[in-house]
Design a protein that fits this description.
339 residues; alpha/beta; FAD/NAD(P)-binding domain; 2 domains; 7-stranded mixed beta sheet; 5-stranded parallel beta sheet; 7 helices; 19 strands; elongated; binds flavin-adenine dinucleotide; oxidoreductase
Length: 339
């Protein structure tokens, strides 16, 4: 059975930044990039989008897949071993930690690998609504990230819609108001879930309208390859009445699902299922297990913040490995006193 000092699970900006730092530190990291893990290609969420305009260093923007290919090459260049398999089971109860891969993870199967330290960088997925038309117009008018996509030309001075009633929906709507001709927030129920302060700001915003008891039921648009959305069918959830309105942008703010099923019950998760980390660090509730990127960040969810936290995880894992190697008696894994 293969053993590594450090294993990274994931393949987005967080995982690859950690891999670049750890391989340059000559720790020979092994990175499991996943085989369509959680339905997303190796490379993570950025492989599902086109131009990234806010990642520093690319003044003309860069394609999401190209950016991730570059990060992957950089990880390999310094000696990261990349394995295109999904980690489907881990045992973090004893050191070394044990990891199994998909299809070879039965009770009788030996682990694929053991590791002294594990970095969890499995990311998160924006929830979708599976509306008719959603597949066709995803990224051609529909987005799950206003900060990422709001500034692109197709949304400038156009009627935009946000779905959701919480703080994220309110934040996204007010952000989009800088660009759109109007922003309408569709709230399924008759009240907002957002905090009082946020709700007050939203309801008093001159460019934002909140439509209660309203749900989008269909996205309509140009019928040609890469056609853009142009209209939205909206249903009044109280009366059942439907209408079609002009809409050039639709932003989902209905939550994200962090990919934490793998470690649930073994390390501490917060009430929304994200890995709990000590603020400002990548340390989880278990020593030797670190988390970075969207799997532990429900606030910023950006490529650059994920990359930054990947760097933090690598430096902390490196220090942890050095400290455990220096001590003669390797202690059993125990709760992280820092958390
Ligand atoms: C459509 C879209 C557009 C975006 N645009 C921008 C933008 O313009 N600018 C910006 O800064 N951010 C943007 N983002 C957000 C950005 O993509 C995320 O913040 C960032 O990718 C999170 O990185 P991450 O490293 O946490 O992991 P992710 O990108 O979430 O990747 C993690 C990946 O790890 C792999 N994985 C998961 N589980 C396992 C497992 N068990 N075993 C092995 N592998 C596994 C999967 O491939 C998974 O996708 C966008 C997001 C989306 C969805």
């Amino acid at each position: 059975m293969a053993h590594s000092k450090v294993v990274i699970i994931g393949s987005g900006p967080a995982a690859h930044t950690a891999a670049i730092y750890l391989s340059r530190a000559e720790l020979k990291p092994v990175l499991y990039e996943g085989m369509l893990a959680g339905g997303t290609a190796a490379g993570g969420q950025l492989t599902t989008t086109t131009d990234i305009e806010n990642f520093p260093g690319f003044p003309d923007g860069i394609g999401g897949s190209e950016l991730m290919d570059n990060m992957r090459k950089q990880s390999i260049r310094f000696g990261t071993e990349i394995i295109t398999e999904t980690i489907s089971r881990v045992d973090l109860s004893q050191r070394p930690f044990k990891l199994w891969t998909e299809w070879s993870d039965g009770p009788e199967d030996a682990p694929a690998r053991t590791a002294d330290a594990v970095i969890i960088a499995t990311g998160a997925n924006a929830r979708r609504l599976n509306l008719p038309g959603e597949e066709v117009y995803w990224q051609n008018g529909i987005s799950a990230c206003a900060v990422c996509d709001g500034a692109v030309p197709i949304f400038r001075n156009k009627p935009l819609f946000v779905i959701g009633g919480g703080d994220s929906a309110a934040e996204e709507a007010m952000f989009l108001a800088k660009y759109g001709s109007s922003v309408t927030v569709l709230v399924r129920r008759d009240k907002l879930r957002a905090s009082k302060a946020m709700a007050t700001r939203l309801l008093s915003h001159p460019k934002v309208t909140v439509r209660f008891n309203s749900a989008a039921t269909e996205v309509i648009g140009e019928k040609k390859p890469n056609g853009l959305m142009t209209h939205l069918r909206i249903k009044n959830t109280a009366t059942g009445e439907e209408e079609v309105v002009e809409a050039n942008g639709l932003f989902y703010a209905v939550g994200h699902d962090p990919a934490t099923a793998l470690v649930k019950g073994q390390i501490e998760l917060d009430e929304e299922g994200y890995v709990a980390t000590k603020p400002g660090t990548s340390m989880t509730s278990l020593e030797g297990v670190f988390a970075c990127g969207d799997v532990q960040d429900k606030r910023y969810r950006q490529a650059i913040t994920s990359a930054g936290s990947g760097c933090v995880a690598a430096l902390e894992a490196e220090r942890y490995i050095a400290e455990t190697e220096a001590s003669e008696d390797i202690p059993p894994p125990h709760a992280n006193p820092a958390l």
